[in-house]
Each structure stands twice: as C-alpha cells, then as structure tokens.
Specification:
The protein is mostly helical. The chain has helices spanning 10-19, 23-34, 37-53, 64-84, 92-100, 112-118, 123-130, 134-145, 150-157, 161-178, 180-186.
C-alpha cells in the first residue's frame, strides 16, 4: 500500500503513539466488565471513537491508560443503563434455525478471545468476580487486575478516594466469603485466623 505524502496531524500522532498502545489492556478490561466478547469489542471501539473526538482534551504525556479507562467505564455504564431499561430481545431467526436443524452434530462457535479470558483466572474466581455488583467489580478490576492506584481509580470512576477504598474493601470481603469453600478445597487457609 503506498504511503501518503501528507504528514500526520498532531492529533493522529498522539492517538497512535499514546492511546493505541493500550488497546489490549482496554480489551481485557472491557471483557471483564461486559462479560461478552462482542460487547467488549463494541466498548473498545466506542472508547477509541470518543477518545479521538476528544483528543484536544487529552494532555499529551499524561496517563493515557487512565484517561481511556475512564472513557470506557463511562461507555460501559451508559450501555448498561440503556439495557436495564430495555426488554430482553430474542433473535427469532436464530431460534427458528435451531429448531430446523435436525442434525445431532451441532457445531458450536467458540470465540478465541472468550476462551483466552475465561482461562486466565480459575473458573470459581472468575464466577465470583463476575457476580459482584458493577461498582464493586469495577474498582476490584481496576486495582487488583489493572494495577491502578486509588487516586487513579477515583479519577476513572468519578468517586472520592474514600469511596474507592470502601468499595474495594467490601468487594474483597464479598469475594473472600464466596470463595471460602473453594479455598478450603484447594488447601488454602486464611493466615489471619490461624
């Protein structure tokens, strides 16, 4: 493909140099939030569209990852709210096609991204994290999986640091309770109670 002789704009340089390198982290985070590969891909696309449109508001050299995560978090919450207010949708064509298929050897489509992310964490832990309320899951993922500081999480989520700490503490306690039996099966004990 021939190269364009036109130099890239400063916005394009910032976008490609500082924002695009975080696509894998955004994809992983979006998948953990949305729990669906297609929804996660949509969230990442929405995030980058919004980031590009608002590139003038981005301060070059600042924490691009935190800025993108904040945009993604807001997009997720907006989509989640929309879905809460909509009735469940059924693809009748898909149901009809399943009923028409009389073969006993139905092939199942497996999304490679979904398989990859599902096996990164043990199933019990993944289920426990996914069952957390959205606000708890959000701070837990940002802190314990993505490694953001409390200050960064407060900026990403638009809540005070005290709220971040409280939600993180509560999320960890809920996980601890939900995983107690699993930990005992694995031979893991709480050293604080020993």
């Amino acid at each position: 493909m021939p190269q364009s002789s036109q130099p890239k704009s400063e916005a394009d340089q910032v976008f490609e140099g500082e924002l695009l390198p975080h696509v894998n982290a955004l994809s992983a985070f979006a998948y953990r939030l949305a729990q669906d590969a297609d929804d996660a891909a949509d969230l990442v696309q929405i995030t980058y569209m919004k980031a590009y449109r608002a590139i003038d508001g981005y301060q070059r050299g600042s924490n691009a990852k935190a800025w993108l995560f904040r945009i993604l978090k807001n997009a997720f919450i907006n989509e989640w709210r929309k879905r809460q207010n909509q009735p469940t949708k059924v693809d009748y064509e898909e149901v009809f096609n399943l009923q028409e298929d009389d073969s006993s050897n139905v092939s199942v489509y497996l999304d490679l991204r979904q398989e990859l992310f599902e096996h990164l964490l043990d199933d019990e832990l993944t289920l426990a994290i996914n069952s957390l309320p959205v606000n708890f899951r959000l701070v837990l993922l940002l802190c314990d999986i993505e490694g953001f500081s409390y200050e960064e999480i407060a900026r990403i989520t638009d809540v005070p640091i005290g709220t971040v700490r409280s939600r993180l503490h509560r999320a960890r306690n809920v996980l601890k309770e939900r995983l107690r039996g699993y930990a005992e099966k694995k031979g893991i004990s709480d050293r604080r109670t020993s």
